[in-house]
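User: I'm designing a mutation panel for Carbohydrate sulfotransferase and want to avoid disrupting the core. Could you give me a predicted structure to guide residue selection? Please restate the sequence first so the numbering is unambiguous.

Assistant: Good idea. Sequence first, for numbering, then the predicted structure tokens:
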Amino acid sequence: MPSWRRGVGVARVLCKGCCRQPLLFAGAALFLVFVYVFAVGSHSWNHNHVLVDSSNIDIAAIIREKHMDVQNSTTTTTEATTLPTVQQLDDDASLTFEAAQKIRLERIQKACAAPDRPIGFVNTLIGTARGNLTYCMTPRSANTFWLQMLRYSQRDFVDEVPQSPLDLDTRQVRTRPFIRTRRYNWKVLSEVEKDAVLNSKIFMSVQDPYWRLWTTYLTALTLPDLWGSVGAKIEAKRPPVRDPLKRKPPLPCGDTVTFEEFVQYVLKAFEPDLQPIHHQCDPCTLPLSYVIKASTAKRDNRYILSHLNLTWALELSDVEAELRQRYIKTMIMENFDRLHDIRIQRCVTFGDLARRLWHSFVLQGLLPDTAAMPEGIDDLHQTVFAERVAMLAQETAGEIPDRRKYMVAAFKHLSPDTLSAVRDKFMMDFQLFGYDPEPPEIFA
């Protein structure tokens, strides 16, 4: 019998008297975590893409250290402490980059080894000569940020050199042809070209599937981004409204889609933006060197940018505040630019769009729900509106204790069957990247 199975058996024996002996329970729990880490570590992943020096990292020791930190910080209370899990450690920004990558890559290895795992795909890759990096594109997961960084590093822009990669026009980095930056479609690469990619340092960016769905709805369906391609399709499937005058119904705008309608569409959709991440960048097909998570982006981004000699781009007094302000301003300016499209003009006015943007920022947790909307919003110039909203977001950043509360409320409003279907559709993403498929605040 393998040693780790014997260990599990011992732990089960230890746990038999848990309810009456809390100290024995804690010891058993710690022992189980050690057994799990030993089991995962005993199955080596034979490829040369783990380029951080993690060979001497003892995850069990880190868990013990974190447990001691919790105990030392709560000596005045008699409440029992909870031993951190490997998943919790993965999202701990105080953990070293190397230790976090060890956890993430071993988790991917385990998920990929499952005999019944679903098939994944690899689509678009961005390669750079500098740093020998390859970025596996994942829609709606920090894509624009990494296109700014990679295109800047290759001087792949047509205007004069900006002061910072963050100054590159966000729409242009997504839509302009790639000249100096290499862009690949994995499916059509020759074996020689694939080998070249596999010999580079491959990375991807991920986030919680529930949060990814929620923010996609807020940024693309409450705002005009996907009104024509997705919103109009959803509205067209609604039962027709009887008109006694038998007038021809107006063309759907796509601007009234509810979150529930959006989720039902996602469950059957094929649009790349709405698919699980492993349908765009499957780490079982494309062995990764690094996985960047939104929860630890500040630390993870800095490490990747060191390969591009671009760490200076994030050397700001308050990186998170700067990125938040830039995001707000970009969202406002891009959406008002869409008003030049006559198909959008017939569906929304300037003032309506400004109010939609405001509410989207509140629901994303970027503005407090108690904040007052600027006066005269219908007549404000878009630049003035952007400056005011960004400034208010900066001033009230500390007044938003829980960015996820509206997301939780939206998912809790769905039926149990729909929630289960969402969980099942994105289950492989949960397993690959260490997210909870049944968050208690949603499924309770």
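For picking mutation sites, this is relevant: DSSP finds 20 helices and five strands in the chain. The chain has a mean pLDDT of 82.
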